[in-house]
Design goal:
There is one protein chain. About 35% of the residues are buried. The protein has about 375 residues and is an alpha/beta fold. It folds into two domains: about 150 residues, Ferritin (Up-down Bundle), CATH 1.20.1260; about 200 residues, Alpha-Beta Barrel (TIM Barrel), CATH 3.20.20.70. The chain contains 15 helices and eight strands.
């Protein structure tokens, strides 16, 4: 948007200001002045998050352009009305302001602030400054989409940080007390859960996925669905994990968008290369050892995985037969991240076992 204020409108407003005797008109100018300030302040908050929090130049440029347009149209006539009537509500706050604890809440609240301020400007400037009214309307509608984009990018960034910072990836198995097991593991500090479906209907799967998603959200942990892009979408999972025979990554990305993460299972150089080219977020590589969950797959072994993972610049997890017994061995060969199924799913004390594994992984060797 590159809108300019005409000289005619500026001159008209200056003349109005010179002859102002109407108190109501002055109050309207004061309202426009206050809301131009609010809109620009709110835009600056989300611009700085786009810049420093997300590093997204195109969004920074776009928001900055909105600020500049409003700044150019913040005429002296509006500023001169600023102290016409003392603002008796100055300094009022709301208890919800102290509840903004993360970047997503800050983005949403400030996007809302901008939208509300622009709506006020749009309404009160319509009769005497049609160009400003039009500008406010166009930016307001643009902010609706921009807010969604920034929230999606923030969500993805948060997921990427969890993948990067956490070394234990837990995969579920079918258990009667599955929710209890998952909560115990989450209480231990596990931040990544992948859920695999076994028997049951799609309705059952979705209900179970939503329950696990809510658990993971409570503990600020990632919830990833195995295979099923449709259930990942329906349950609002944080992402999906795809195997060789599942939906291809490009199609999954079209369906899921860029706010969700996509992981890939790989066991050879070609699969790893393709996954990286297509923009996967992490890779599960294995099996490292023999495992009951992949009986028909020959273990790759330590040396093969070391060769396959050279140069990988995204998180990757060693999977297949990993237990507390061999984690120290894996660490001596530089394997920092692991995925487990059986040991934790079959544990008599999943919280304790998960804590032991987390300590093993965090211990420097």
């Amino acid at each position: 948007m590159h809108l300019k204020f005409s000289k005619t409108t500026k001159n008209k407003l200056k003349m109005q200001n010179a002859n102002h005797t109407d108190a109501e008109d002055l109050r309207i100018l004061q309202i426009i002045d206050a809301n131009l300030d609010r809109a620009r302040e709110g835009l600056r908050v989300i611009e700085d998050w786009a810049r420093f929090g997300l590093g997204k130049e195109k969004y920074v440029e776009r928001i900055k352009n909105f600020r500049q347009i409003l700044g150019k149209n913040h005429l002296e006539v509006y500023k001169q009305s600023r102290n016409y009537i003392e603002d008796k509500c100055k300094g009022l706050t709301h208890k919800e302001q102290i509840n903004r604890k993360n970047s997503e809440q800050i983005i949403s609240s400030n996007a809302g602030r901008v939208q509300e301020a622009l709506r006020v400007i749009e309404e009160f400037s319509r009769s005497h400054n049609h160009e400003l009214s039009k500008i406010a309307s166009e930016i307001r509608y643009a902010i609706y989409t921009l807010e969604i984009d920034l929230l999606s990018l923030s969500k993805r960034k948060n997921s990427e940080e969890i993948l990067k910072q956490n070394d234990l990836y837990v995969i579920t198995d079918q258990k009667e007390n599955l929710l209890e097991i998952i909560e115990e593991i989450l209480l231990a500090g596990v931040k990544i859960i992948q859920h695999r479906f076994k028997t049951g209907t799609d309705k059952d799967h979705l209900e179970e996925a939503i329950q696990i998603k809510n658990l993971c959200k409570r503990y600020n942990s990632l919830f990833i669905i195995n295979d099923r892009v449709d259930i990942a979408l329906a349950s609002n999972a944080d992402g999906v994990h795809l195997g060789k025979d599942d939906l291809d990554l490009k199609t999954a990305r079209k369906l899921l968008g860029y706010s969700k993460i996509i992981g890939i299972s790989a066991s050879n150089e070609i699969d790893i290369s393709n996954a990286l080219k297509e923009g996967c977020d992490y890779i599960g590589i294995g099996p490292v050892f023999e495992t009951t969950t992949k009986k028909n797959k020959k273990p790759l072994g330590i040396e093969e995985i070391k060769t396959l993972t050279k140069g990988i610049n995204i998180p990757w997890f060693a999977i297949g037969g990993v237990t507390t017994n061999n984690i120290p061995y894996l660490k001596t060969y530089g394997f920092k991240k692991v995925a487990l199924v059986s040991q934790l799913m079959n544990s008599d004390n999943p919280k304790q076992d998960a804590s032991i594994i987390l300590k093993q992984l965090s211990h420097e060797t």
